[in-house]
Request: fold
Amino acid sequence: MLPPAGTKALEARISAVGTALLQHVQGVVEGVERAGTGPQALANAVGIDKVLASRVLKALRSQDPLTAVRLMPGPEPLRRLVRAASKRGASQGDSAAANSAIDAFEELIRTHFGDRSLLDAMLSAWVPEARREFELRRKQAAFKAMSQLKGAQADVLGATVLLAPSTDGEHIDVVWLNQLHGLHRVRPGVTVKLSSRRLTKGPTARQPFTLAGQPITHDTSPLVEPFCSSPLPRLDVRQVGETVFYLLGEEDLGGDSAVDLVFAEVNRDELNRYIPRGTSRKSYFFAEVTTPAQLLQFDLLVHEDLYRGQEPQLRLYDASFEGVANPNDPTRDIDQIDMMESITALGKGPRGFRSAEISRYGELVAHVLDRANFDGERMRGYRCRIDYPLYGSQVMMVFDAVERPA
Reply:
């Protein structure tokens, strides 16, 4: 990584290259007489393909040097444009100036980056639109690779956490609602695993229950059957200490065998509601990306009496090496992932708890609220939606823990 001084110098050089490209490519384009201002008119007038014309015009419209460098096609397509334009009205001086700017562009790529993709990676730090596009493409490529390596994938990975005060006023009831839609294996014999866990010590040994109030064991299914695909997928349950593992039973291979898997666990008195006064700690709830998925929808639905006046903060961790992270452990700060993801407030009440990505999601949440005896009208919601979430990452929403009232 470049030191700050080197970064500023490189940014200045890229900006100078972008300024020259904007000025001199614009001069070449304006020197060609054409029937209109759009890409097709330029393509017809110069004799190039419409895609190249569209990219050049989009870069010129940006008027920002860094954005122009990001949007411009490579040096060779630009030279092809200049050669064609010089035969159709662009002046020799404008063409020479444009070729000099293109040469500087090529030298920038060769000298500092080696290839265009690394230049795009650097630009993503300075141009928000570039960063968003850069991250999405890389995440999509990572999804394709990991789904083949892991041998399984899902269209949508849904994780919904519902929080309400326990009846004793001292603890928090937690309901986990997990959804995998379009889940299927792409290789035989692959284990598809999800888990729920409690990282902080609770008042009692952890024993999740179904929505019907039965203890979840290897003989008791937590499936929310009306919202699963038919025939019902098989879900094997294994509990190890404070962690419960859910394993998808053997199914057929391929997209035609995809299943919709929805299951819930109810944890009464799961967490302490208060921390001792003078203690500075965080309360946190997270989703783990343990199955490659095209989309993660992580929702947190919180009773109005909990974490009053607070909005959750988003943290993303790389959990592939050290395991799941605890925000109260400063040694895990170095595992945080800096990406352009965010939290959206869903408002208060079930009317806001809908999803364009998950069929019947509002109905599903209403079903869970009713079975868990939570008052949906007193719940406020938050959502983190991530396209192609990184396999092995941990997506976390964090509150300041609430001190015990005086």
Remarks:
- The domain at 151-400 is CATH 2.60.40 (Immunoglobulin-like).
- Residues 207 and 271 are 12 Å apart (CA to CA).
- The chain has two domains: 4-126, 151-400.
- The longest strand covers residues 171-185.
